[in-house]
Amino acid sequence: MARVAIQTEDFDTGAELAALTSGRTDIGGIGCFVGTVRQTAEGVALAALTLEHYPGMTERALEAIAAEAERRFPLLGCTVIHRVGRLDPGANVVLVLAASAHRQAALDATWFLIDWLKTKAPFWKQEVFADGTARWVAAREADTKAAARWGATQAGQEAPG
Amino acid sequence: MDETLPLTVLYFAWLRERVGVAEERVAAPASARDVGALVDWLIGRSAGHAAAFARRDVVRCAVNQEFAAPEAALHAGDEVAFFPPVTGG
User: Fold this and answer.
1) Chain A residue nearest residue B69, CA to CA
2) Any idea what the CATH number is for the domain that residue A85 is in?
3) Which of A14, A121, A145, B74 is 20 to 30 A (C-alpha) from A152?
């Protein structure tokens, strides 16, 4: 049963790990990915990153992605938390945790979750610079390729083109 | 027979900025029976709409909060969202 959250406030990675494993003795490994705001965008200093999303669809998309991970990997628990709003350099953006009996499934599921999240969940990043100008981040071909290595979609279908 | 198709249309990120609104209720013509035909009609609504859809190949769509292709059928009351390729994570 996955825990999925979209929130403006920060998350506590240690507390989320503890919550995932509390009272469990069947878990043998937990994969963890934390995405954070880099201080520069192509060499230019960033004042902040603003994250917009599609309320309603975002929750459905994250739940579908987590459900797909649970279908593909023998998971014993899974957490996906994504922040929205204005985030300063160094701030946490996204947390993915995947627990399993063995490391292979835990680490593979973590890769899968972040790869699919980046290409199938309706979030949009805008870079805000010190002079007040802002620029929407363009989707990267590398992210699409990273998601494609996991094969066909069963949930959260990306439009062609 | 209905003459128009009532829809809620949402825009996100730079599409929202170009159109100038995040959401609009529209009465599309009955000919706007799929996503592509709806875009054809939306483009004529304002210069902002035309700018938003200037590069249709990069615009993504969702119908009732599920990703949808240009040929996806539309029905009265649908929520249709247009946005750039997603960049979360």
Assistant:
1) A159
2) 3.90.1170.40
3) B74
Q: Distance from A62 to chain B by nearest Cα, in Å?
A: 11
- Residue A54 within any structural domain of the chain: yes
CA angle at A159 for the pair A112 and A98, rounded to the nearest 5°: 15
**Using a CB-CB distance cutoff of 8 angstroms, which residues of chain A are in contact with residue B57?**
161
Instruction: Assess if residue B77 is contained within a domain.
Output: yes
Minimum Cα–Cα distance from B14: chain A residue: A136
**Nearest chain B residue (CA) to A161:** B57
Total tally of structural domains belonging to chain B? 1
Domain membership of residue B35 (yes or no) is: yes
Contact between B65 and A60 (Cβ < 8 Å):
yes
Local confidence pLDDT in tens for the 161 residues of chain A: 799 999 999 999 999 999 999 999 999 999 999 999 999 888 889 999 999 999 999 999 999 999 999 999 999 999 999 999 999 999 999 999 999 999 999 999 999 999 999 999 999 999 999 999 999 999 888 888 889 998 876 544 444 43
* Cα-based torsion angle of the residue sequence B11, B16, B21, B24 in order, rounded to the nearest 10 degrees: -10
Q: Which residues are bridge partners to A95 per DSSP?
A: A34, A81
Decide if the complex's ipTM is over 0.90: yes
